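Chapter summary example: a protein plus adenosine-5'-diphosphate.
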Amino acid sequence: MLDSVRVRLTLWYTGLLALFLVLLSLVTYSIFWRSTLQRTDSDLAELSEAFLSTVQAEMLDDHGPDAPRRAVQEAIVEHHYRDHVFAVFDSAGRILASSQDLPDEAAPAGLLSSPAIQRVLADSAGADRQFQKIEAGRGGYRAFVRRFPLKGQTYTLVILQSLHAQKEMLEEVQATFAWVIPVAIFLASVGGYFLARKSLAPVVAMSSQAGRISAKNLHERLPIQNAKDELGRLAASFNELLERVDQSFERQRRFMSDASHELRTPAAILRGESEVALSRTERPAEEYRESLAVLHAEAQRLTQIVEDLFTLTRADAGQYPLSPHEFYLDELVADCTHAARSLASAKQITLTCEVPEELPIGADEALLRRMILNLLDNAIKYTAAGGRVAVSCGRSGTEYTLSVTDSGAGIPAELQHRVFERFFRADKARTRSENDGGGAGLGLSIARWIAEAHHGRLILARSDSSGSTFSALLPAPVSVLSTAPSLAR
Ligand code: ADP
């Protein structure tokens, strides 16, 4: 049960509310009690003031030896109230006069001569006036002790006020708290549970909807009730995640179907050609050789496609290990151009290479070679016989720019943005029918990945009817390293 966020939220909410209510009631109770006492104390002080004024007034007319007793008795009679007990003690602690002798007295009999009163007198011995509490009777008493001089003697006035009414009121307040707080907590917990349920309902709906989404219905999205609140934003983020997963699934699906489509053709040619070769028992050696040549070419093509696919798969998974070392890019470019020369001369294509300076670089040489050969291979492949292919490489700022320019027919403007897509071929039919070694449309994807793996870029810088230029922009070392001792030339 505690595994449910709803229950946990409700418990937290109820617990905090209960704590808050208990604290609130304690504070209210103590403030109420203190203000009651303060009011009682100020009443008592006022009463003592009035009492002593009456005593002074009585003393003006009476000069006998027992005048203080009579003045005090008069004042007691005059100021006697139901809830108050007056008593005046002489300096020896004996009662001079008290209201207990009067009818309707609120104090229990014997209170004034009890040890409690003696204790009050003793405790306030050093003070002129003092308030004290006496635990006696129902609710106890508040005592105000005040010393005053009369005819050269010091007397002590004690006024007691019963706290019974206040105690009763406080008990009522306590009793009210005792049922109001549990009821409030119960109602709040029920309300809190429904509130938590209502606020979490979209999450529950989202989780069951998310549970229904699988690879088959990845295009489905979670409903968003309010895009601006937290849950709406959570659903939107989840939907964005689904979108990315969906796109990645889609790319994967396309990749698989394109790959199998590309593999199917050479496999079909291999099967067809071998079936033809095997169909007759006796054939001239020349025909067998021709068939074997076709089988060999297709097997090579198949191997190339499989290798390219393997490279891309490993690159996607970030598992293609780079082996960088320092070498000269100008030498590599010259090397690759040399390697492509026979291919170019077979089509009477003029192949030139222009690398005016030494270009030291730290990179994976084999991968860069593969990238340059891919670009050169394409340039020669898509340039008509008698055309021109030029390779150039130089430093511009912090980059090396390696460009391969051809005088081919170019790539249609509307297809240029797709040339780096996997399995993309501008003219599939033509490439396939000429069977001129046209690849599976993976060469540029791999070349771009190689440039990016070296923190560079591969771009189609220009392509029109007069030809195309592909440029690889690779980061150059910060210092000019042409004389770097570590580079053996
Ligand atoms: P492919 O193996 O088919 O050459 P690439 O990925 O190397 O695959 O190239 C993708 C497509 O881009 C090619 O099929 C071709 O249509 C187009 N292309 C690439 N390089 C050139 C170029 N130099 N001139 C014209 N078209 C090109």
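Key point: Confidence is low (pLDDT under 50) at residues 429-436, 480-489.
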